[in-house]
Design a protein that fits this description.
Oligomer: single chain
Structural class: mainly alpha
Strand content: under 5%
Distance between the termini: 28 Å
Radius of gyration: 19 Å
Helix content: over 70%
Number of helices: 9
């Protein structure tokens, strides 16, 4: 029996709760370990010593998390989606675009106070200082490329195009994350903490996209 359209568009409550609760709990656990200088932090520091090997390639990959690189990509996606939604006569066509822009604005509003709260020192490769957890560059990359992907997915007509976009997004985020750790700009936990924080943000955006996806269009998958 065909599934009604409204059921196709409604995510399972348990799945949504898991996407929101699990990364939030992981983020709380990592943050607690960073503040308390727990055993997870000491393991993180040993892992960093193994992974750090500054080179030109890692520096270029780390630049993918720069505001000057990631935000313009998101801006282009927001403009395109706004035009397509409005042209299709979508109710509240502006909502996903506004949500994406708001999430990007929330990155410094959330990350900067957390950096001050945790006051974590940097790796031996960077100049002496604190405020490295969570990674702002990682958060910028995850939210910018992730928002762009979630907003564009409903407008892609083929499964191949959707898979390509998701793969590209994952490559950009993982590339930036790898570059930040390899170059020594951040500890691994700085990056993982940002992943967890931004997963919660992207799940919220995904729910808003589902609410206004044009009928007949492909539904974006969960983050």
């Amino acid at each position: 029996m065909p599934i009604p359209a409204n059921q196709e568009r409604t995510p399972l409550p348990g799945s949504v709760a898991l996407l929101l609760a699990l990364p939030a709990l992981l983020f709380a656990l990592i943050t607690w370990q960073v503040v308390a200088d727990g055993p997870l932090v000491r393991l993180d520091e040993r892992l960093s010593r193994v992974l750090v090997n500054p080179d030109r390639c890692s520096e270029l990959l780390a630049d993918l998390g720069n505001v000057q690189v990631a935000v313009p990509v998101l801006a282009v996606a927001l403009g395109y989606v706004a035009l397509r939604n409005r042209g299709a006569g979508v109710d509240r066509w502006w909502l996903p675009v506004a949500a994406g822009a708001l999430l990007m604005a929330l990155v410094p509003a959330l990350v900067v106070p957390l950096k001050e709260l945790t006051d974590r020192p940097g790796t031996p490769v960077v100049p002496p200082g604190t405020g490295y957890y969570p990674s702002g560059h990682t958060a910028t990359a995850v939210v910018a490329y992730g928002c762009a992907t979630l907003l564009l997915l409903p407008w892609l007509r083929t499964a191949l195009a959707r898979r390509t976009l998701v793969t590209l997004c994952a490559a950009l985020v993982l590339g930036a994350s790898y570059g930040l750790v390899r170059r020594g700009y951040h500890w691994p936990l700085d990056v993982v903490g940002s992943w967890c924080l931004c997963t919660v943000l992207l799940t919220s955006l995904w729910l808003s996209v589902l609410a206004v996806t044009p009928p007949g269009r492909s539904q974006p998958p969960g983050p």
